[in-house]
Design brief:
The complex is a heterotrimer of chains A (about 290), B (about 270) and C (about 280).
Chain A: H1 9-46, H2 52-56, H3 69-100, H4 105-119, H5 122-136, H6 143-167, H7 171-179, H8 184-213, H9 216-221, H10 241-249, H11 254-288
Helix pairs in contact in A: 1-11, 3-6, 3-8, 3-10, 4-6, 5-6, 6-8, 7-8, 8-11, 10-11
Chain B: E1 20-31, E2 34-45, E3 49-53, H1 60-67, E4 77-85, E5 88-89, H2 97-103, E6 104-107, H3 118-128, H4 135-145, H5 149-152, H6 165-177, E7 183-187, H7 195-208, E8 213-217, H8 221-227, E9 230-235, E10 238-244, H9 245-250, H10 255-261
Parallel strand pairs in B: 3-8, 3-9, 6-7, 7-8
Antiparallel strand pairs in B: 1-2, 1-4, 4-5, 9-10
Helix pairs in contact in B: 3-4, 3-6, 4-6, 6-7
Chain C: H1 4-27, H2 30-35, E1 39-40, E2 47-48, H3 51-82, H4 85-100, H5 103-121, H6 130-155, H7 158-166, H8 171-182, H9 184-200, H10 203-208, H11 226-235, H12 243-276
Antiparallel strand pairs in C: 1-2
The chains are: A mainly alpha (about 290), B alpha/beta (about 270), C mainly alpha (about 280).
Amino acid sequence: MAHPAKAGALGARRRRAALFVATCRLFTWLAVVLLGVLILHVTREGIGWLDGGFLSSYPSRFAEKAGIKSALFGTLWLTSLTALFSIPVGVAAAIYLEEFGGRGKLSAFIDINIANLAGVPSIVYGILGLAIFVRWFSLQRSVLAGALTMSLLILPVIIMSSREAIRAVPHSIRQAALALGATPWQTVRYHVLPAALPGILTGLILALSRAIGETAPLIMIGALTYVAFVPSGPMDAFTALPIQIFNWASRPQAEFHQLAAAGIVVLLAVLLIMNAAAIIIRHRSQRDRAW
Amino acid sequence: MVTPSPQPTARAADAAGSPTIIQAHDLSISYGTAPAIRNLSLEISENRITSIIGPSGCGKSTLIRAFNRMNDFIPNVRMEGVIEYRGANLYGPGVDPVDVRLRIGMVFQKPNPFPKSIFKNVSWGPSINGHRSDVDGLVEESLRRAALWDEVKDRLRDSALGLSGGQQQRLCIARALAMQPDVILMDEPCSALDPVSTSRIEDLLFELKKQYTIVIVTHNMQQAARVSDFTAFLDAGKLIEFGDTETLFTRPKEKRTGDYVMGRFG
Amino acid sequence: MCALLSIATTIGIIAVLASETYSFFKHIPLFEFLFGTRWTPLLEPKSFGVLPLINGTFLVVVGAALVAIPVGLTAAIYLSEYAPDRVRSILKPTLEVLAGIPTVVYGYFALTFVTPLLQLIIPSTQVFNAASASVVVGIMILPMVASLCDDALRAVPHSLRQGAYALGATSFETTTRVVVPAALSGVMASFVLAVSRAMGETMAVTLAAGASPKMTLNVLESIQTMTAYIVQISLGDTPAGTIEYQTIFTVGSLLFAITLVMNVIANRVLRRFREVYE
């Protein structure tokens, strides 16, 4: 029988293999290049407009006078309230589901449910918020309504990432605590939770940074696009960074596009700080980790 | 004057005068700074079964993987010395490892069939080499040689993962045979199998050695004694003794060999 | 109790969408909605055929998939099979950063960079067009494809790769004919999840693709996606109870239904895939 390996074909196969690797590498670095282009473009467009006045003025019809003060404060209010609602609920739910939930049909159903909710488009959450918080609860277009809507949006993500963090804590720690006579709740409170904390924190920061960048749900619940004041209470109307950027970007004039770029630089800076914090926390905790 | 190396050089003292097909000269392999093989020299005879035995961690797997350049995949592995296959340096410049593996095949400890059909598992190797003619015939012959044909001939398109452990391992042997190698390396091929499957594969080896050279790593000394023509005993990376199996087991030259085969350690 | 909130949310979404959709369909026949080809709920004569919106969404999503799937899959292959650890530690965070950029930024990028670029190459490109939106949405979902495919590829046991190499296969042959086929269901599921994400994308398409619902296959024209329509209506003055208001919920229901089906299927496939390899 003829030998199954053709003598000359090896060279062609080797070349094909090399070509393949090169192509894969090229495409992968493409992603990096794209990121670089994006950031460069935005920075170049917006950097001219970025100054103290920009940060402290309200939007205006005149591009030179426009600023993002209201948007910045709006985002601040929004994020704080969102954190206030979503963090306790999300982490508590994660703890309950991981430590005290059973493995039965109900908990499996809840798992699937949460995973699906995480994949629902953000605009649908906006529609939900519109119907329930703005109209049914009569919260109108307030920061509160926005915060509640955003909380619902990021809750599945918080629950999923917190559960992962809790799950990553080795069983041996729980067993040791229980063997010393601790109740399940004490085990969680004094051993599991502190161990899972860095992972939970990282997940929280990432979820909140997602919330900061979301625009569609806020539009749905009626965040205004021209706001010349800073919210003074949860029931006030508001605007937010991404909304302001969107508003400026939708205008035809070039100056407003550049203003939008400046706004983006601020937004990206905020997100960068948050993500850097998350990475530092993850790094530190992995360094100190005993497992 | 050069003092002779304290390591025994293995010679194939075979009455039938079987030629050497693989030869290792003064081989040393280390992972980073940890040595795995030290100054090892060995000759593998053609159409014979050579077994490599020794306690855990003695370097058996490292040695066998060096023969078909599977160690290339491990980062920071360093090698000194020469391994020759039919007189040519396996690691010479311009030698393609892919080419090496076409002639020196391997069967692994845990059966690892592809998640494809039985037929495709056997035909995969030849097909990527551009082998177009009579694939069916090649598959059938390989499965027959692996003593698996009768059991699977009616379900060649079924998934290989549906076979039992012993059958999967024989499939892996068939898969290696389809490449028509000169040498088949086996890294503890029966350690994950039940005794019945093990003995079937051992019977298979006697048939296979008529056409192939087999190097088998095993921690099962009874298996080595039953099956192989020559045995090499390794300990802590060094070749302690090599020779005709019967001699090595009944009248070993080194005390350490004797201790090992009597089960006093390892 | 907190966990049950998730069930409440799901029920809430369904209930809210369903009730308004129901009212909508009291006025407009389902057939006309699903199969009509003119969508002008705000202009006289009013017409409520949703196909133009589906058309718009389809154009953007297909274009995005064309960008994200090849690049994402090859990037995943490179990351899991070839990249040295050092390179991987640069590339993975880069992908995560790409994934974290807010969608408005991508919309801005499409409008002010991609569209002018396209207009340079093909002068007939309109200011608002589906192609720019496709490109940036593709960039947006690329990290998702890469990350999920990378997970799927890494789940394939090393013993399979070793078996292939031992038969004298090159890395190309091993990767394309053993590893990827073994990871196929995971890879496919990741494609579906990414496409579903692309469907739900709002801000980039609103900024870049336009507000002209129409039936067309020309990606250089302006179109309107389902999501962009919802935004457009909300920015305007639509009192509650009117049929225009109800269109928000109806189109929203359609969007929710499609993405839900895709996600459920993909997640189930992914779950089964993980079970096989764990």
